[in-house]
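S.,

Sequence below, as promised.
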Amino acid sequence: MKHLFLTLSYFVYCEAKKFDTCDLAKELNDIQDFPKSNIASWVCLAEHASGGDTKAISLTPAGIHHYGLFQLPQRTCEVGGNGGDCQVACQSLIDDDIKDATKCALKIFEDRGFYDWLQFNQTCQDINGVKQKLADCGFKP
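The prediction came back faster than expected:
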C-alpha cells in the first residue's frame, strides 16, 4: 500500500513587503554581521519558504505556526510579547523590517544549520540557479 504524505499549510497575507531575488539579496547584504557568503542560500530559503513575503504565516497539520520571511517556528517567539528561543514577539517576525527575523534565523542556523528548514533541504541543495539570478541582476556581496 502506498502512502501519500501531504503537509498542509495556509498562508495569511496582509499588506506585506514581498521581496524578489535581487532585492532580498541586497537587503541581506546591508544587514551588519550577516554572513555574506551564504546570501544565495538564504535567498533560496526565503523564496521557497514564504515566497519572499515578510507577512507569511503557515500552520502545519500538527498545529505549529511558522512566521515570516524565513518561516520561523513558533518556539522561536512569543505571541503578545518577547519570548521563545529568540526572545522576540512573533509579530516582529512578520513585519517589513527583516532585522529581527534575520537575527532569529541566524541564531537557529548557528545551532543547527539549515536542518530545521524542510524547504531548504528539499529545494536549495543546489543553489547555482539562485547564484545565476543574483549575477544576472548585478549583485555582488
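The helical segments are 21-30, 39-50, 99-112, 118-123, 128-136.

Coffee later?
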